[in-house]
Structures are given as C-alpha cells and as structure tokens.
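Predicting holo structure, 2-acetamido-2-deoxy-beta-D-glucopyranose bound.
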Amino acid sequence: MRLTIHGLLLLVAGLVSGTTATTTTRLTRRASANETKDGLHSLMVATGKVYFGTATDTNNFDDEAYQTIATNRKEFGMFTPENSQKWMSTEPFQGNFSFAQADRVAQRARSNRQLLRCHTLTWHSQLPPFVQNTTWNPAALTALLTAHLTTVMRHYAGRCYAWDVVNEALAENGTMRSDPPSVFLSILGPSYIPLSFTIAAAADPSAKLYYNDFNLETIPAKADGAVGIVKQIRAAGARIDGVGFQAHMNVGQTPKREELAGTLRRFAALGVDVAITELDIAHGKVPVAPGGVEEVQQARDYAAVVGACLDVEACVGITVWQFTDRYSWVPSTFPGKGQACMFAEDYRPKLAYDAVVGLLKETAGLAPAGSAESVFGSDGGKATTPSPVNASSTTGSGEVHVVGTGLLE
Ligand SMILES: *[C@@H]1O[C@H](CO)[C@@H](O)[C@H](O)[C@H]1NC(C)=O
Ligand SMILES: *[C@@H]1O[C@H](CO)[C@@H](O)[C@H](O)[C@H]1NC(C)=O
Ligand SMILES: *[C@@H]1O[C@H](CO)[C@@H](O)[C@H](O)[C@H]1NC(C)=O
Ligand SMILES: *[C@@H]1O[C@H](CO)[C@@H](O)[C@H](O)[C@H]1NC(C)=O
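Done. Tokens:
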C-alpha cells in the first residue's frame, strides 16, 4: 500500500516535471523518479547552493502522503521546526525546559540526512505567559535570556546548521518594533539584539547565527533597519553570520528577480550569508483554480524569488514555510488569503513547482534555457486558461488529486 502510493506520487511528479518527454520516456522516468536529480533540493545543490528545505513539525508526522514528500531528500534537504523550538514550546515554565517535540523533528531530519535550521530564540511573539507577565528588571531579564538561549542552544549544539537568533525586531519603517510591545525592547532597549548574539555564539560555536525578518524583500526602509542591525551586532563585538529573508509574499506583489537580488546583495556586501527562510506566496482571494492565471502568476513569483537567490552567491538556500496548502499558516492568520504553497492541499505540485524545477535545471545546466518560461505559457501568463499543451500539467495535477485523496481517506 505504502509503496504503491509512494510510486504513484513519484509517477505523477515525473509526469508533471516532464516537459517534452514522450509517453514512453515518461513511463521510464516514473520508475526511476527518486533516482534522478529532479527534486528541489537535489537540483538546488546541483546549482551550488546548500539546501532547499521546508518548515514542518510533529503535527504533520502522521500524514503519510505528506511524509512521502517531506522525507524525500531529493525534494527537501533541510527541515525547520515550524513551532516546536519557539520559546513557548521549549521553556513553557521558567527553568522547565521541554524538548520532546522539537527533538522528534531533529531526529527525523537526522535519520533522513537532512539539515536542521533552528528557529527561533529571541522573539517578542509566541512567548510563554511568564516571560510577558513578569515585571522584569534589566538584570533579571538578561539572566533569563542567557539561561534560555544557552540551554536551548546547548541542547541542539552541533545539530543546527543555523539558528534564527533574533526574529522580527523591526517595525515596517526600519525602526525598532514596539507594536506589539516587545518585553526585550522595553526592558533592555536595542542592546538585547547584540546581547542575544553574544550569548548564542558562546552556546553553539558551530551554528550560523542569523537575524530573521519579513518584508525586507519589499520595504527598503526595513532593509535599511536590518543593515543597521548587522552593523550594531558587529559594533558590539558579537558574531552574526547571516540575514534571513522570510519572504512571506503575495501573488502579483512579489519583487522582480533583479530587484530582490539587489536587496540580497546589499547584505552580501556586508559579508554575511543570506537565505530565504519562510517562503510562501499567497493569493489575496481564494479559492483559485488549478492551472489558471492565478497559479501562473504565482509560478512567476516563486521563480523570481528562487532566481534572486540563485543570482547571489551569498544566498545559501531556500526554505518554504510548509510545502503544501494543507498545513499553511496563511488562511488561519489572514482569513480569505491562501493557497500560498508549491503543492496544493491534495499534494498536487502546482505550476510554481514546475517553474522552480525548470529554473533550477536550467541553472544547473540540466535543461535548456526557457524551461521555466515554458511553464508560464507563450502568452506571458496573461491568459485566463492554460494553453492545451500546458494543460498537460493540469491533467497530471488531477491525477495527484485522486491519489492524494485516496491515501488520506
Ligand atoms: C526509490 O524508491 C523505491 C521505492 O520506494 C525504493 O525501493 C528505492 O530504494 C529508491 N531508490 C533510491 C535510490 O532511493
Ligand atoms: C515541568 O513541566 C512538566 C510539564 O511539561 C510538568 O509535568 C512538571 O511538573 C514541571 N516541573 C516543574 C518543576 O515545574
Ligand atoms: C499575560 O498578560 C497578558 C496581557 O499582557 C494577558 O492577556 C494574559 O492573560 C496573561 N497571562 C497570564 C497567564 O497571566
Ligand atoms: C515608525 O513606525 C512606528 C509605528 O510602527 C512609529 O511609532 C514611529 O513613529 C515611526 N518612526 C519613524 C521615524 O517614522
């Protein structure tokens, strides 16, 4: 049963990614799909990058169809725990640490030979009540921060490729964020940022230490603020290795490839790595039809973000914030928006998946130029329905729908 469905999913993945293959060669490809370089991670590595990864967590562990894709190292070479390493999960009561959930994610990554990108330490959100509701003085909060970061990072020492040390410290205009209030900013001032990096560097010398935030891609003033944070950390004599661009984007409002590459290069010029850490690209109004104009635009937008990373040597990798709409955070957080992932709720790979695979193959020299463009269609992606030739992707998607639904029942 498991092997059959696994094989069917691979078959459909092969069909969808095959652009010019005949039926016969497609049938050949389906049998060896897991032995080709067709996966997102394998292709990403073939372009010279470190990983293509996904956020995931233990609430996804019992979904067999999900796991078939998530644990396929050809697709995903890195896991980020979506929630289980956040403060509310790892230290729900002061001094009482709880690693059981995050350990399961780390263990699964290790057994799949996937990297672990660890997330996150100092953040104003998803804190346990005791952090927010205690009246701290600076010394006590410094001691708390030191104990938390040191305990969590030592627990995972040597296992995290990178840690998001400080998350979302900036307001949209590039000043320090105070809305909603940050207990760290209000008690310690902006020095909580270099303090966190100093503690982190001592706790796990092998992890790359990142500052991570959203809208750096689209708001120059916020990117200015992040440049300031890199300089502030360095001026305090602390180590920072990278800046994470969360890249929670909206379909049709994603920066052009060359614009985003330019923003990434601003950070590369400071001597830090950059990474796309939480990529998803949401439709403003859902549902949208499979293979329709909205998915074509989404494919263009995904290709722009991935292309920007490929264009910048300092960009080490890309993480999607879940690969399937089934488990995306978007609809519950932003009602009415959604379908933001590369795979549909039923695990159909969308045009975004085809476009990214095409782009990675081109970049790795495994496919001719135009392989990604072909996914968008000769009309430049403005048609309201897919062309007949491109509609084969849609047909393949329909098969995934049947397979995925069958497995979940
Ligand atoms: C490919 O998948 C099949 C069936 O799941 C499995 O038996 C085989 O070991 C896999 N090959 C590789 C190279 O992973
Ligand atoms: C720590 O938390 C666990 C539940 O996560 C609880 O069972 C235990 O009593 C707590 N220990 C202390 C000392 O608070
Ligand atoms: C903590 O404070 C917040 C408001 O700052 C409040 O909403 C919440 O109920 C408090 N939690 C506890 C456990 O006291
Ligand atoms: C930046 O935005 C915040 C609101 O998020 C506002 O309070 C602050 O005055 C703004 N600062 C500047 C310099 O515009």
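The CA atoms of residues 18 and 26 lie 7 Å apart.
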